[in-house]
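Recall that a protein's primary structure is simply its ordered list of amino acids. Everything else, from secondary elements to tertiary packing, is in principle encoded there. The following example makes that idea concrete.
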Amino acid sequence: MIESMTTLPSPDHTAHAEDFARFITSSPSSYHAAAEVTRRLIDLGFTQLDEAETFTREPGTSFVVRDGAVIAWIIPEGESPAGFRIVGSHTDSPALKVKPSGSHVTADGWGQIDVEIYGGMLLNSWLDRELGFAGRIIDRAGTSHLVSTGPVARVPQLAIHLDREVTTKGLTLDKQRHMQPVWTFPSSDVPCIFDHLAEIAGIGSADTISGHDLVSFTTEAPAIFGDEGEFFAAGRQDNLSSVHASLVAFENIVHSNSVGSDIAVFAAFDHEEVGSSTRSGAAGPFLETVLRRLALTYGGDDHYYRMLAQSTCISADAAHSVHPNYDDRHDPRNKPVPGHGPVLKVNANQRYATDATGSALFDRICLAADVPYQTFVSNNSVPCGSTIGPFIATRIGIPTVDVGIGLLSMHSAREMSHVSDHYYLSSVLTSYWEGA
């Protein structure tokens, strides 16, 4: 493990965090994140392909989009590439998802949006915040429209005067009864959230909408704060922190023309927070299909399997920094701290895909990038979560290592990280794709 550097952010670190803030603001849903990645890849000179088109083996840069997921690749100049170097992340985050009924008015006259819980939300963190809703709506012609509201809703908490036991017994929230946001108090006509969204999309009224995937987001802007401007606060850092870091690393190797001898693959999946088992999730066929199609331009199935035998993957997802008020929840000798670099995630039960081979790979690329790193392993009494790494390792059968930025308040509506760690992760992923 590399010795820790100073935790004070440099101007480059702060500029990177400011770019991340803009990326988050442009990405209130997984579909918006895919669109923002698309915009930046096109600005970088990438060609967007339809999955129905033929893939070629010509050196260059291309990508495909499937719903809220994006896979991009760089084919290097020269002979047939030996294998793939993949960085995987995910575009979704826990949120309130709009139900088919959309909205209703209570007996007391409150207009509420009907929602269900998407992923493992820290429910209390969504209380008393001004919320927007974003995602896609599909019209009756089959056209998809990205939509995003301003601050239109709020989940109000019950006043302490009406819940005196909250300070002694703690806050208890029922997912159905207590998490429905208010968004209007109509005086006459009863509004419908779908009418509001159809108007934003420019397609008339709710009658024109045939389908929708809409989630909540916090409308408060990301912020850099702390005594030395070292901390970063925003929603959706799990896992836009990894999407952005890998995207910036892709931009770095294109600008410097420094891609290694393998095909560099950027893969941002959807639906990790609900298990990844979808057509755009890491447990689905998306990545396998793209890799196979690329390999088959060089030869048959045997060539594909030979390339896999020389391939690796970094699964980049958020990690846990040691919590100052709950340090007993961490392993006593493995406590990642903010500003000391990305975190290597290890679990004996393979909830993370990291093994000795993956650890050695990560150590090597951090050395090449001159970036410190840390290790997370769970307290034996506090089971850890999981991420896309085991799905990729199982489905594709290549060495995979799980890493990420250390966060506090993971799965909160507003998470916290260290400015420098974002820059460090991009530097490490750049080194990986350069061939370290």
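The radius of gyration is 22 Å. Residues 83 and 308 are 6 Å apart (CA to CA).
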